[in-house]
Amino acid sequence: MRYTIDSTKSTPAYLQLYLQVREDIVNGLYTYGEKLPSKRTVADDVGVSTVTVEHAYALLCDEGYAEARERSGFFVLFRTEEGFAAPSHPAVSRSVPHSHSDDSPEFPLSVLTRTMRAVLSDYERRILERSPNCGTFELRDAIRKYLARSRGISAECEQIIIGSGSEYLYGLIVELLGRDCVYAIESPSYKKIEHVYGAWGVIPEHLPLGNDGIESAALRDSSAQVLHISPYRSFPSGVTASASKRHEYLRWAQQGKRYIIEDDFESEFSVSKKAEETLFSHTRNDNVIYMNTFSKTLSSSFRIGYTVLPKHLVAEFEKRLGFYSCTVPTYMQFVLAALMENGDFERHINRVRRKKRKELFGK
């Protein structure tokens, strides 16, 4: 066994171990159905406690790479196959269905008002200045650092575009990739996705969802060049794409000039012990467009969303769409940037996640 823990890193030992075992699973060193080494074996070989190994294995189970079987150990669930996996069963929610309505956990008003006053004092007349077209540097940089430390996404500020909510950003992406492309969406999916595409003259293909994501046969037979997905708790089905399915999406995107639009709505509030994985952080082909919004994490009244472009599309975006003015007021961008920089944003997320875990698991 070649797993090692670097004590000089700030990353906890269990996360280091999780990442190494996950890589071996994805690369096929442990195949579907195979039993993983016992916790005691790994602990003895690596020089860590069995509790550390248990935490690492629990994360593998949370992400769908493995499953625990009572009195038998941990077994690999991830499938690595040529082409696509066999069709899955009819859609069954893997988590509590969510809603795009205004039922977000409330962000503390006292924290928000304190930050708004601080921004007024610190920035003074700068809050009246026109925002750069892609958003203020302060907010884009705050998002960049947040994604790096919390979501495993490595991006530059120039890749991040700020806009007033998901619907506005959907339209920008259609303009960027072109109306002549064939777009595919999950079926069922959030109705506004189809409505926005329709407003831009695009009639998307509907790909049926199974219990772990889009049916493999439908994805294989699709003529789409762009796949719009919500891997975490797709609305209204509540289906979450499994680890195997997420890698299947990435394999699909490797064929020809294809793109994935990763609509990562509400994933911050996952009850997993770590943040949900993103396709953007896993792709090696620079062909995933990541999207998210603050309507759930803060308030739907904020109407602030963002997209992270693949590096090779940044120049094309600037050339074709760089003239668009930013639709989010400069003041609100400064407020959100401050909430992210001072830690209040992540403290709120962690507080909500702890509450949800306690409600579901009693701990």
Brief sketch in words of this structure:
The chain is an alpha/beta fold.
What's the arrangement of secondary structure elements?
Blueprint: H1 13-26, H2 39-46, H3 50-63, E1 66-69, E2 73-76, H4 109-123, H5 137-150, E3 160-163, H6 166-177, E4 183-187, H7 191-199, E5 205-210, E6 213-214, H8 216-221, E7 226-229, H9 243-253, E8 259-263, H10 279-282, E9 288-293, E10 305-308, H11 314-321, H12 330-341, H13 344-361
Parallel strand pairs: 4-5, 4-7, 7-8, 8-9
Antiparallel strand pairs: 1-2, 3-10, 5-6, 9-10
Helix pairs in contact: 1-3, 2-3, 4-12, 5-12, 6-7
The H-and-E topology, N to C, reads as HHHEEHHEHEHEEHEHEHEEHHH
Low-pLDDT runs: 82-99
Determine the CATH superfamily of the largest domain: Type I PLP-dependent aspartate aminotransferase-like (Major domain)
Q: Count every beta strand, where a strand is a DSSP E run of 2 or more residues.
A: 10
Determine the number of helices (DSSP H or I, runs of at least 4 residues). Answer: 13
Question: Structural class, from helix and strand content?
Answer: alpha/beta
CATH class of the largest domain: Alpha Beta
DSSP strand (E) fraction?
5-15%
Tell me, briefly, the overall form.
globular
Question: How many whole angstroms does the radius of gyration measure?
Answer: 21 Å
Q: What's the CATH architecture of the largest domain?
A: 3-Layer(aba) Sandwich
Ends apart, CA distance between termini:
33 Å
Number of domains: 2
| Share of residues in helices | 25-40%
Q: Quaternary state, please? A: single chain
